[in-house]
Structure formats: structure tokens, C-alpha cells
Amino acid sequence: MEYLRTPDDRFTGLKDYDFAPNYIDINDMDAGRIRMHYLDEGPQEGERILAMHGEPSWSYLYRHMIPIFTAAGHRVFAPDLIGFGRSDKPVNRQDYTYQRHVDWMKNWITGIDLSGITLVCQDWGGLIGLRLVAQMPERFARIVVANTALPTGERPLGAAFQAWQQYSQEVPEFNAGRIVNGGTTSKLTDAEVDAYNAPFPDDSFKEGARQFPLLVPSNLDDPASAANLEAWKILRTLDIPVLTAFGSDDKIMAGIDEIFQKMMPGAAGQTHTVLKGGGHFLQEDVGAELAQATLDFMAQNQI
Fold first, then answer.
1. How confident is the model at residue 22 (pLDDT cuts 50, 70, 90)?
2. Does the active-site annotation cover 250?
3. Known active-site residue 123
């Protein structure tokens, strides 16, 4: 598999992101190896939080939440999905599939032998993370579902998402920072916009980001539909505690939190929340509130 590697100097001096990089080479699912980046912060003995980003962000998204988690004594893992952040970026669009993203993350989890996981997942972090829960539930202790879904293709994705799909393919300049900014209510500084663009020196690095919107199952003939339906069969049976924490101003995901509350047994009796003022990238708008809701949820559901 041919891939690009973003130069290290692109990540120098990013505001509030002075975390040490960690790398592991994983099976690229094409008879080779590919390098994946992740953060590993907090005490070694702390309970493990896995913070998963989505499209078109990277672990920078969690920079304000990580110190809150570590101050509470927890150990935080924040990976960059393949194609994003400091992880390697395959150059061919066809190398990015939903299944490969799941497999890459599974290989990372088993590669570092991560268990006892409290999953915090947003956007594609949920589309991938919830598939991982279904595949290896024994590694997960709790799930925080934030502005995400696990679509199966049984229902239309909606006009807003279809507009995003069209935009992602037709816009001449795919500016990740501006896209993230457009999904917030608080709005980013120019330096923060630049930080979201840092992983992508030019368009050749953006094939994964461009491809993600097309991988969401939109009908039952989609390659990922059957796998997501199977995942839901398992998720409906699990008693792993589940918290939904959605942003009040995320119009695309509005109401999806109720699906998780109804479908996942572990959601019963939890203190679900809608975070006022939170847009799609609620880590930017209400990160402290999302972190505290996660901490409260963990305290209420001791392992």
C-alpha cells in the first residue's frame, strides 16, 4: 500500500497540544505495515479512556478534555485514524473502506493490548468505535456516545447529510479547519483552524478525508450495511453501560441519541445529557462539560 507521512514540523508549536507522540506499526490489510499515531496520557494505573475522533479532525480535537481526564487520575488514549493527524495516509481512495478503518483500529487495540476501555466516540469515532465494541465487547467497560450514529442503510441519511456528502466531493479546496469551524458554535481561532489543517500539507494527503463521507451506508446494498446490521444485533444484547451526550445545536445528529437510549440495554437508567451550546464538534464548544459528564458516568458505573 502506498502512503504519505506528514512531516513532523507540521505539528510543531500547536497551541494547547504539547503531548508526546506515540507510534505503532499495524497490519495495513494489504500485506504490509502502516504507522498509526496515538496519544497516551495520564497515570499508567489509571482507568483507560479511549477518545476517538471523526471527520475531518484528529486527536487535536481532544486537547482540552485530556487534561481534565488525567487530572482525575485516568489514562487517556487518543489515536489518529489512518489518513488523519500524524498517522500515515494511503494515497489511493480505494484503500479507504469502512471495513479497513474498523480493522486498522482493531489491530491498534490488540497491538497495544488495550482493555477496560471507556469509549468516548464522536462522528466517525462512533461509526468505527461501536463496530469495535460489537466485535470485542470484553475489552470495553463503558461507552459515551457523542454526536454519532451507527447507520445501516435502512433509513435515508437526510438532506443535511446528503448536502455534506455533495460538498465534500465537489468543493475545490477541502479545508479541514474551516469544516471543523463550521461545525462549532463557539468558532475557532485562526491558529486552531491551521492546526486542523496541519496533517494535510496538500491535497494528496486528503484522500481519506475526502472518502469518509462516501463510506456511510445510505442503502441496504452498501458494502457496510450488512456489517452494521450484525453489529446492532450484538449491541442490543450488551449490558455495557452507555451514556449519550449530544450537542444541542448539532442538527444533523438531532434525535439519534434517543435511538441509542432505546436500543442499547446499558443505556437504561443512565443520566443522559444534551449539552447546551454544543455543535457537531462538541469537544470544541463544550469540551469541559463533556469531560465532566464522562467522569460522572464513570463514577456512577464502577468497574
1. very high
2. yes
3. yes
* Degrees to nearest 5, angle at CA 272 with 49 and 165: 75
For the question of residue 280 being annotated catalytic, the response is: yes
Q: What cell does 282 get?
A: 462538541
- Contact yes or no for 165/215 (Cβ under 8 A): no
Classify each residue of 199-212 as buried b or exposed e, where b means 16 or more C-beta atoms within 10 Å of its C-beta.
bbeeeebbbbbbbb
The 8 Å CB, 24+ separation contacts for 212-215 are 212/54, 212/55, 212/56, 212/96, 212/124, 212/168, 213/55, 213/164, 213/165, 213/168, 213/169, 214/165, 214/168, 214/169, 215/96, 215/97, 215/98, 215/101
Catalytic residue among 37, 53, 101, 280: 280
Q: State how beta strands 140-146 and 3-4 pair.
A: unpaired
CA angle 264–140–147, rounded 5-degree value: 55
User: What nine digits make up the cell of 117?
Assistant: 476501555
pLDDT in tens, 202-250: 999 999 999 999 999 999 999 999 999 999 999 999 999 999 999 999 9
Tell me the β-bridge partners of 35: 25
84 residue type, one letter:
F
Of 250, 257, 272, 285, which is the active-site residue?
A: 250
Mean pLDDT of 119-129: 98
At residue 43 the predicted structure's pLDDT band, cuts being 50, 70 and 90, is very high
Instruction: Tell me which of 123, 222, 257, 285 is the catalytic residue.
Output: 123
Dist CA 273 CA 270 (whole Å): 9
Distances from the Cα of 139 to the Cαs of 109, 110, 240, 301, in angstroms? 9, 10, 10, 16
Domains of the chain: 3-300 (3.40.50.1820)
Global confidence as pTM: 0.97
Rounded Cα distance between 243 and 260, Å, is 9
